[in-house]
TrEMBL record:
InterPro entries (UniProt xref): GntR_C (IPR011711), TF_FadR/GntR_C (IPR008920), Tscrpt_reg_HTH_GntR (IPR000524), WH-like_DNA-bd_sf (IPR036388), WH_DNA-bd_sf (IPR036390)
CDD domains for the chain: WHTH_GntR
Organism: Streptomyces pulveraceus
Chain ranges of the HTH gntR-type domain: 4-72
UniProt keyword annotation of Hydrolase present: no
Pfam families noted in UniProt: FCD, GntR
Protein name: FadR/GntR family transcriptional regulator
Taxonomy of the source species: Bacteria, Bacillati, Actinomycetota, Actinomycetes, Kitasatosporales
Entry superkingdom: Bacteria
Keywords, alphabetical: DNA-binding, Transcription, Transcription regulation
Keyword Methyltransferase: no
PROSITE patterns (alphabetical): HTH_GNTR
Length: 232
């Protein structure tokens, strides 16, 4: 195994420093000169490490103001998923199908938990989004991706898990990005509405098994379109 470079070592140590000092997004980090002294490293290595961490939202470099802890957003993760799926798909591999199956497993595993006690306010939001889907389907012949995405994010809001929300949004963003690029086809919008309505009704009835079945059914159409053909 190759030994880490000086810049890679600084990346590791800077992340440790953020944890040790209990810093969060927007908090100031030591200046470039202070980092050089702290890590006994040259300017080039420190700058290389900072640029690498900025690329994954761990740090934010504000010219003229200094360096701060970044947003820590999962957008680079989503971009990586999307790119990997697109490349593998275009090489004739099931990259997009695999990405969809991961998201399906995650959502089917979570929706039963939601039925344990979803607030009426959240149910109202979900009903409203299904009504919007229905109007979009009848007026435009399609359900807007933004509405579908909002539904799936709102469905798990009651779990009050910020990391979960980011992970789900990252998978959705990756899937959406690749599906737009590769045009994998579209399901009948009225069927889409009916499937989302069934999910809401199952959750409202606190029927976990029904909710899981409804979620699996929702993914059936996507799975059928993306499933690789058996090798001849």
């Amino acid at each position: 195994m190759a030994r880490p470079t000086m810049a890679q070592d600084i990346e590791r140590r800077l992340k440790e420093l953020i944890l040790e000092r209990g810093l969060g997004p927007g908090d100031a980090l030591p200046t470039e000169a202070e980092l050089m002294e702290l890590f006994e490293a040259g300017r080039v290595s420190v700058r290389e490490a900072l640029k690498a961490l900025q690329a994954v939202n761990v740090v934010e470099i504000r010219r003229g103001f200094g360096t701060f802890v970044g947003s820590l957003s999962l957008s680079p993760f989503a971009e990586g998923l999307a790119f990997r799926a697109a490349v593998r798909h275009r090489q004739g591999e099931p990259g997009l199908f695999e990405l969809m199956r991961v998201r399906e497993a995650l959502e089917a595993g979570l929706v039963g938990t939601v039925t344990a006690g979803i607030p009426e306010e959240d149910l109202g939001v979900l009903r409203g989004l299904v009504a919007t889907m229905d109007a979009e389907a009848r007026e435009n012949g399609r359900v807007a991706r933004s509405t579908d995405r909002a539904f799936h994010l709102a469905l798990y809001a009651s779990l009050d898990n910020h990391l979960l929300s980011e992970v789900l949004d990252a998978f959705w963003a990756a899937m959406d990005r690749v599906r737009e690029d590769l045009d994998d086809g579209h399901q009948d919008p009225l069927v889409t509405c009916a499937q989302h309505r069934e999910i809401v009704e199952a959750v409202e009835a606190a029927d976990g098994a029904r909710a899981v079945r409804a979620m699996r059914t929702h993914f059936d159409g996507i799975r059928t379109r993306l499933e690789p053909s058996p090798a001849r």
